[in-house]
């Protein structure tokens, strides 16, 4: 199944460029040494089909160009300013490994000024027809179209405002296709003064149109970079590399032993979103180690999975500093103050040697899940014996759990306080957003918080 990526705004385009680089580095890197030549070729072909267009060049192109034709990303690039798109295209060309399609970009001369309303009400409708034409061309190139993955930030104006509008357009144009949005949650200390307005408006609109919303929190990503990867001067490129690695670890080809199916977008969403009221997903992965330290590190499956399970129940974003005092208790204590983080569904990905024989039963413990979810639907696992990236063993957990309640509640609270004092509201009203739109967004997100809190 092929995945069409829609890169929205500065953040979305930079993550998209890094994601395509990561999946190719994995497909053609050291991981191939851990399997047979045939298995490696099958894996590489599956990666190319999922993320790239590899059409054979025409006879005229062969005659006029002696260079090999590079894989072309199945991507639509959207930004209201051309600078980041041009940089991302150039970086792909410089890699010599892949490229973007020359006619799959939409940009203008002026950005959205970190104003969600400007992006949603002005730039979005202006861009709609041109962007949908590009999307249609990319979809038609797919032999087996599997759905959309939109990459975007919550804090700015283009990624959030235009992103929310175009997500609604994708749902309208492709009502039966799977649509997942990967979002970057802003720093709690603040990147943009109106980021809580932008984030609340974006999330409430995405909840009406997307099938799933995969959340990455900048605060957690920053800790991974500083504490686990030992990066001193952390850049957005470092953070994007972590996002791309974690995304790739759940999107790269893997197989389910019980059903024999691959981890296509539709397969994952079917397992993870049993009810449309619960759409917030997050990714936890282990290990995170710098390449320099990796040569002196040794990991076992029991050790990795023990840490990963504790990260799940203690709602920890990384293995270091996880609270081992949090325990899984019986259902009659579910409402106690020492509650662990319950889940609706979890999908575990194991990549590397001996992953077939490792014990995964702790993740199927029924006490981890809400009582109304059938036991056979709550947990599933995908395996790939080929090592991932530069790790011999790598585990990822894609979860639909109670984890987003805390950050979401904090965000809505801050946004409401600003709205109650009418701070910056006039900047949104002048682009056609009414006060009722804010109230509707708050109501939608309060309902989401209530649903997850009652798991």
Mean pLDDT: 90
Number of helices in the DSSP assignment: 16
- Spell the H/E element sequence: EHHEHEEHEHEHEHEHHEHEHHEHEEHHH
**How helix-rich are the residues, as a percent range?**
40-55%
Cα-atom radius of gyration: 22 Å
- Strand adjacency order, main sheet: 5-4-1-6-7-8-10-13-11-12-9
For the record, give the distance between the C-alpha atoms at the N and C termini, rounded to a whole number.
33 Å
Summarize the structure.
With 455 residues, this protein is α/β, with parallel strands linked by helices. Helices cover 45% and strands 16% of the residues.
Which key terms come to mind for this protein?
45% helix, alpha/beta, 455 residues, 16 helices
Task: Please give a structural write-up.
The longest helix is centred in the N-terminal third of the chain and has 25 residues, at 116-140. Helix 1 (9-27) crosses helix 6. With 455 residues, this protein is of the alpha/beta class. The protein has helices at 9-27, 37-51, 59-64, 82-95, 116-140, 158-173, 195-209, 218-228, 236-251, 265-272, 291-294, 301-313, 375-378, 405-420, 425-429, 435-453; strands spanning 2-8, 52-53, 72-73, 75-79, 105-107, 145-153, 179-185, 212-217, 255-256, 280-286, 343-352, 379-384, 393-401. Strand 4 (75-79), helix 4 (82-95) and strand 5 form a beta-alpha-beta unit. It has an eleven-stranded mixed sheet with strand order 5-4-1-6-7-8-10-13-11-12-9, with helices on both faces. A two-stranded antiparallel ribbon has the order 2-3.
